[in-house]
Specification:
With 273 residues, the protein is mostly helical. The chain contains 13 helices and no strands. The longest helix has 30 residues.
Length: 273
C-alpha cells in the first residue's frame, strides 16, 4: 500500500512540475496508481468509470450550470443585484452587503461558486472599484461570498458526495447545508461591515425608480425566490428528487429569461452557448 501511495504522489508532483493542469495531473496520477496496483485491468477500469457516472442524480448538475448561465446572460442576475441593493445598499459599505447577498441568492440557484464569481463578480467588482472600494477587499468579498453556493442547497458538491457515498440522501444533505450556508453569509456580511466602517466606506444613495420598474424588479426577484423556496420545500416532502426539481425550475427560468431579455437573440445566444 505504501508503494502505491508513493507512486501516486510522485506522478502527481512530476506532472505539476511539468506545468500540467491540476485536474489532468490528478486524473493521470490516479490512473497510473490504479494500474500499478494491478487488481483492475484497463478495460475493467474504464467500465467502472462509466458505471460510476451512470447516475440519475448527476443529471442535476447540467441543470445547475444552465440555470446559472441563463441568470447571467438573461438579465436575472442583474435584477437580483438591484433587488439586493434596495434592501442593504444604504448600509455603510453597502456594495459589500449587496455583493454577499446576491452571491447567496445566486448560489442557491446555480449551485456553483465559480458561476457566482463570474456572473455576480463580473458586475460587482468593477462597480465597487469605480465607487472607491479597495480592489483586494472587492475580490475577497466576492470570492468568499461565492462559497456560500456550496452550502446553500441545492449544491453540485453535495450531489457528487451523495452519489459517491451511495447511501447518503440528497434531500438530507440539502437540508443540512441550508442553515450553515446562511450563517456563513451573515458572518461574511458582519466581517465586511466592520472592515467597511474602519475604511470609511459609505452607504450608497439608492435612487428610487419609477413604480413600474421597481414593480418589475420585485416581481422577477419574487419569482426567483419562489423557485428557491419551492425546491427546498419539495426536497424533504419527497415530492420530487434533485434532477426533477432542477428541471422544473429550469423551465421557469427559461420563460422568465425570455421575458426579461432585451431581445430574444440574447437569450438564444446564451442558450446555444
Amino acid at each position: 500500500m505504501g508503494t502505491i501511495a508513493l507512486i501516486l504522489v510522485s506522478v502527481f508532483l512530476v506532472l505539476l512540475l511539468m506545468n500540467v493542469p491540476i485536474a489532468v495531473a490528478i486524473t493521470m496520477a490516479s490512473f497510473v496508481a490504479i494500474l500499478a496496483e494491478g487488481s483492475n485491468p484497463a478495460v475493467v477500469l474504464a467500465g467502472q468509470m462509466a458505471n460510476g457516472i451512470n447516475s440519475f442524480s448527476l443529471l442535476a448538475i447540467p441543470f445547475f450550470i444552465l440555470s446559472g448561465y441563463l441568470m447571467g446572460k438573461g438579465g436575472l442576475a442583474r435584477r437580483l443585484i438591484d433587488f439586493a441593493a434596495t434592501l442593504v445598499g444604504r448600509l455603510p459599505g453597502g456594495l459589500g452587503y449587496v455583493n454577499t447577498l446576491t452571491c447567496m441568492l445566486f448560489g442557491s440557484i446555480s449551485g456553483s461558486a465559480a458561476a457566482a464569481v463570474s456572473s455576480v463578480g463580473g458586475f460587482m467588482i468593477p462597480e465597487m472599484n469605480r465607487k472607491g472600494y479597495d480592489r483586494q477587499f472587492n475580490v475577497a468579498v466576492t470570492t468568499t461570498s461565492a462559497t456560500t453556493g456550496l452550502l446553500i442547497p441545492p449544491s453540485n458538491i453535495m450531489i457528487v458526495y451523495c452519489v459517491v457515498a451511495g447511501s447518503v440522501s440528497i434531500a438530507a444533505m440539502f437540508m443540512a447545508g441550508f442553515l450553515p450556508g446562511i450563517l456563513t453569509g451573515l458572518f461574511i456580511m458582519l466581517c465586511g461591515g466592520i472592515m467597511s466602517v474602519k475604511a470609511g466606506y459609505r452607504g450608497e444613495v439608492i435612487e428610487m425608480p419609477r413604480w413600474k420598474p421597481i414593480t418589475a424588479t420585485a416581481l422577477v426577484a419574487g419569482i426567483i425566490l419562489s423557485i428557491i423556496a419551492g425546491r427546498l420545500g419539495w426536497m424533504p416532502a419527497s415530492i420530487t428528487v434533485g434532477s426533477l426539481s432542477l428541471s422544473m425550475g429550469l423551465i421557469i427560468f427559461v420563460l422568465v429569461s425570455i421575458i426579461c431579455c432585451v431581445c430574444f437573440v440574447t437569450f438564444r445566444r446564451a442558450y446555444m452557448t
